[in-house]
Design brief:
By secondary structure, the chain is α+β, with helices and mostly antiparallel strands. The chain has helices at residues 9-16, 22-29, 33-47, 63-88, 98-101, 109-122, 125-136, 284-314, 333-368, 375-402, 415-424, 432-451, 462-469, 478-505, 510-516, 518-542, 548-568, 570-576, 581-598, 602-607, 613-616, 627-635, 647-661, and strands at 142-145, 161-165, 170-174, 182-183, 194-203, 206-216, 229-233, 246-250, 253-256, 266-267, 273-274. Helix 12 packs across helix 14. It is globular. Bound molecules: ligand LYGD5NNO and flavin-adenine dinucleotide. The site of flavin-adenine dinucleotide (FAD) has 22 residues, from strand 1 and helix 12. Residues 478-658 form the Acyl-CoA oxidase C-terminal domain.
Length: 662
């Protein structure tokens, strides 16, 4: 981090009044002092590579140049990773330094994030031995090609066909229609030479559902598409410009039998199909990534909050009191209301991610022992937390952007790009509503089990408690609020279930009744997610090893999250819990007191995310607060400022002005 010598005086004052040790917060957030040290050390190594610095901001490059620059930097970054591993005999620590280098999304994201994990998770030991060393060392580059032009959410409806030919022991891949073309996979456009293709398996004219296959699609020397492969890039998007999303179609393209990833289901040489223990295990990579996305949400909320809080400490506008100088905009309570929830939410998502990661690891261990009991709970929880955290994080980033006024609209603030990238997660890896409806299926089953007095899985056991406790009075404590959110979830689950029953009594079949109740079902899933986020984050704060000074501030943040959502969803609480109008008024006052209590520590709290200037990549958010100088410096980099008179003056403006004289 930069020294404070050239720091904006407002930021110096803010840091002086912080009541806790920022380094303690950093170490707690990232796990330990050792983890912080190792992460910083790795970040230093990356940032020391001169070739990774951009000569001009990426926004001035063309679509093609931007991609080429992205690939260039991704390959250098990959060397730094490789060298680190060779030197330390382990992978680099978790870090976000790719953001400082690629800025948008790496063309290798899908290689590292889904291609390699799918081989590891869906391949037999022999298949792993064949492909993993090549993929991990980047001798081959891959992606995860599942979504098609016509189908993304409903993957049983995918149209790519893999027909087994027992004579040659090969699968023949075909995309018979336009809608069957793969569409979206990152890196597919012009980067990868391999992919995991998810296709419908046919043997002797019989369909056996969707399965993952490895296909080499480009020549390793020339990079030309192999015969029978039609591949290209899908064009500019809201974000993800350097992710190189692409399309792909096969025409009688043959791959050997061993290229079907066969850890779960198998196709024997003679064409016999052997079912796996659970066909949904084929969806495993998606579950893993959904868990990871909750962690990403923490990062994006932290990034936007750091930029907006530091900017708000530096920016002065108008007066709170006419007799005093112009106020720091951070002193307006409305500004605190916009920003502190982003700081608090980053901590909540981080704790939820760590909790989910544990659940994921446990279930993977159980699956390796053929025990599947907890898979439905993992799937349901990953779906709803991914859906709710990504949408909330997108809204928080946008609120931080708006809180920076006009300057938040500048690309150089890095908030527009951050919004584009954050909000993409609402759609990718499972569209929000679709995932919430998956969780709703689980909730309906849990509810039916609760009615029968059965034992429920831990994440839904509150449904049973709520059944018993519904008459207890409301308590205006954090624990009471957590219970309140559980009551809301309980009430919404019950109402959705009863709505389905009502339609069925009217003669509708279950599917139609489900559709008619689906707005309520989605809301029940959202309420369930909120109950989990509140419970998990409050428990994490209560059991943390922080010093009293830090603990006080972390508790304030967690309480802010609880009271913010109580006030946002007060209608639900009035409907489904025993909260009263008076309780809500007390909580409204409490919320405002929390904003005031957190205010002196606001800059310290965002410093505690330990995001370097290079990662923030923002004129508004740098550690030294030189906001106006950086805005001007960045503006001067515009190609339009590299010449005094632009040629368009002579070509268009002058002729127009002269014509106007005639
Ligand atoms: C630790 C983490 C580390 C790293 C990751 C970190 C960061 C991320 C890195 C990289 C990635 C970044 C960007 C990625 C870019 C984007 C990639 C993509 O988008 S890839 C494509 C993703 N596509 C989807 O997500 C599709 C969504 N659709 C589906 O998943 C399914 O179609 C759906 C589940 C909606 C429905 O499936 P279907 O077969 O129709 O099932 P049905 O509804 O009939 O349900 C049947 C039955 O099965 C249960 N079930 C469904 N899915 C699962 C599952 N995954 N696991 C377990 N069980 C499952 C379902 O609950 C139901 O059960 P019941 O019958 O109710 O008992
Ligand atoms: C930036 C980005 C990167 C991506 N990267 C990849 C990649 O690398 N590999 C890959 O394979 N895919 C990738 N995808 C595709 C992504 O996984 C899909 O877009 C996503 O799963 C949503 O599917 P869809 O586009 O078909 O949406 P749709 O399902 O068509 O959604 C449209 C609307 O229909 C509604 N809807 C659909 N089904 C239902 C239902 N059953 N009930 C109620 N409402 C419903 C949805 O709620 C939504 O409102 C990427 C997408 C994006 C945006």
């Amino acid at each position: 981090m930069s020294t404070e010598t050239k720091c904006n005086p407002d930021l110096v004052r803010e840091r002086a009044k912080c009541t806790f040790d920022v380094n303690e917060l950093i170490n707690l957030f990232y796990g330990s002092e050792k983890a912080t040290k190792e992460r910083r050390h790795f970040e230093d190594a990356v940032l020391a590579v001169k070739e990774l610095k951009d000569a001009i901001p990426e926004e001035y490059l063309s679509h093609k140049e931007r991609y080429e620059n992205g690939v260039r930097k991704a390959t250098i970054l990959r060397d730094v990773y490789r060298d680190y591993k060779a030197k330390h005999n382990r992978d680099p620590p978790p870090n976000q330094i790719t953001k400082a280098v690629i800025k948008d999304i790496s063309p290798f994201l899908l290689h590292n994030g889904m291609f390699v994990p799918t081989i590891a998770g869906q391949g037999t030991p022999e298949q792993q031995a064949e492909w993993l060393p090549k993929a991990e060392s980047m001798q081959i580059i891959g992606t995860y090609a599942q979504t098609e032009l016509g189908h993304g959410s409903f993957i049983r409806g995918l149209e790519t066909i893999a027909t087994y030919d027992p004579k040659t022991e090969e699968f023949v891949l075909n995309n018979p229609t336009l809608t069957s073309f793969k569409w979206w996979p990152g890196g597919l456009g012009s980067t990868v030479n391999h992919c995991v293709v998810v296709a419908q398996l046919y043997i002797n004219g019989k369909s056996h559902g969707i399965h993952p296959f490895i296909a080499q699609i480009r020549d390793l020397d020339t990079h030309k598409p192999l015969p029978g492969v039609k591949v290209g890039e899908i064009g500019p998007k809201m974000g993800f410009q350097t992710a190189n999303n692409g399309f792909l179609g096969f025409d009688n393209f043959r791959i050997p039998r061993k290229n079907m990833l066969m850890k779960n289901a198998q196709v024997l040489k003679d064409g016999t199909f052997v079912k796996g223990i659970n066909e949904k295990l084929t969806y495993g990579t998606m579950v893993m990534v959904r868990v990871g996305i909750v962690g990403d949400c923490s990062f994006y909320a932290a990034l936007a909050a750091t930029i907006a809080v530091r900017y708000s400490a530096v920016r002065h506008q108008s007066h709170i009191k006419a007799s005093e100088p112009e106020a720091q905009i951070l002193d307006y309570l409305t500004q605190q209301h916009k920003l502190f929830i982003a700081v608090a939410s980053s901590h909540v998502y981080r704790n939820a991610y760590l909790w989910m990661e544990k659940m994921y690891t446990n279930v993977m261990k159980e699956l390796s022992q053929d025990k599947q009991d907890n898979l439905p709970e993992l799937h349901a929880t990953a779906c709803c937390l991914k859906a709710v955290c990504s949408r909330d994080a997108g809204s928080l980033v946008e609120e931080c952007r708006l809180a920076c006024g006009g300057h938040g609209y500048m690309a150089s603030s890095n908030l527009p790009l951050t919004y584009g990238v954050t909000i993409a997660a609402v759609t990718y890896e499972g569209e929000r509503t679709v995932l919430l409806l998956q969780t709703a299926r689980y909730l309906m089953k849990a509810w039916m089990a609760a009615l029968k007095g059965k034992v429920l899985s831990p994440s839904v056991s509150y449904l049973l408690n709520s059944l018993k406790e519904s008459k207890k009075p409301w308590q205006n404590t954090p624990e009471g609020i957590v219970k309140g959110f559980q009551h809301v979830s309980f009430g919404k689950v019950k109402a959705a279930y009863e709505t389905i029953q009502k339609y069925m009594k009217q003669g509708k079949d279950y599917e139609d009744a489900w559709n008619l109740a689906s707005v309520q079902l989605v809301k029940a899933s959202e309420a369930h997610s909120r109950a989990i986020l509140c419970e998990v984050s409050w428990e994490a704060v209560c059991s943390s090893s922080a010093s009293p000074n830090l603990s006080r501030v972390l508790q304030q943040l967690a309480q802010l999250y609880l009271t913010y959502w109580t006030l946002e969803t007060s209608g639900d609480l009035l409907l489904y819990s025993n909260i009263t109008k008076d309780d809500l008024i007390i909580l409204r006052d409490k919320y405002e007191e929390l904003l005031v209590a957190i205010r002196p520590n606001a800059v310290g709290l965002v410093d505690g995310f330990d995001l370097r200037d290079e990662i923030l990549n923002s004129t508004l958010g740098s550690y030294d607060g030189r906001v106006y100088e950086r805005l001007m410096e960045e503006a001067l980099k515009s190609p339009l400022n590299q010449e005094t008179v632009n040629s368009s003056f002579h070509k268009y403006l002058k002729p127009m002005m002269e014509k106007a004289k005639l």
